[in-house]
Specification:
The chain is α+β, with helices and mostly antiparallel strands. The protein folds into two domains: 89 residues, no CATH class; 52 residues, SH3 type barrels (Roll), CATH 2.30.30.760. 17% of the residues lie in helices and 41% in strands. The chain is built from two helices and eleven strands, in the order αβαββββββββββ. A five-stranded mixed barrel has the order 7-8-9-10-11. β5 and β6 form a beta hairpin.
């Protein structure tokens, strides 16, 4: 019995010595900046204008082609994040008339999947005569394609308002006059975005 106790003591001492001699663990140190709160700053007018122009350039449907941004106005000095992952802009459709006009827009700052800030701005635009013309004028004849499962139905229709390619507008079926919303995919073709009932 005495020998067994001595053996256990010797074994425990050996384990302690081995642990003391082992090199320290090199586990990675957590990156403090990874979980840090995003930093914010007050944006001056020049910075807001730059961000607006970049966001519009990245969005093909923000303003009509042939339209120049004369100026960007912001009613406040907004706080925006230093490093957003993405910035988008929603522009209210301007009046389609040649010359100088104004419209509103909203900048949205994203961090990953979250919206962290929205900044309303006013755009002063200079629209050329070409930009003032819709791709598909009001009353233009189009073929409306209505999809129901695997079935496609084509029907004659006319646009109830002027539209550009990609716009979703109301079209009127002929001859019934029934109204449906359709996306303009060509100058003479639209795809229904709601079901016919």
């Amino acid at each position: 019995m005495h020998r067994r106790v001595v053996a256990l003591v010797v074994f425990a001492l050996a384990l302690s010595a081995s642990a003391a001699a082992a090199p320290p663990s090199k586990a990675p140190v957590p990156n403090a900046s990874a979980n840090a709160h995003p930093r914010w700053h007050r944006a001056n007018p020049a910075e807001i204008e730059r961000i607006v122009r970049e966001a519009i350039a990245a969005s093909a449907t923000s303003i009509p082609k042939g339209t120049t941004i004369r100026s960007v106005r912001c009613g406040t000095v907004p706080e925006i994040p230093d490093s957003p992952t993405n910035v988008t802009i929603e522009v209210t459709k301007p009046a389609r008339k040649a010359g100088i006009s104004s419209t509103s827009a909203v900048l949205t700052f994203h961090r990953d999947a979250s919206v962290v800030a929205r900044v309303p701005v006013t755009l002063e635009l200079d629209m050329s005569p070409e930009a003032a013309t819709f791709d598909v004028p009001k009353g233009a004849p189009v073929v409306l394609v209505i999809k129901r499962g695997l079935l496609e139905i084509s029907a004659p229709a006319v646009t109830s308002e002027g539209a550009d390619l990609g716009d979703v507008v109301q079209v009127l079926l002929r001859p019934s006059g029934r109204a449906l919303r359709g996306q303009i995919v060509a100058k003479d073709r639209a795809i229904a975005v709601e079901e016919l009932r």
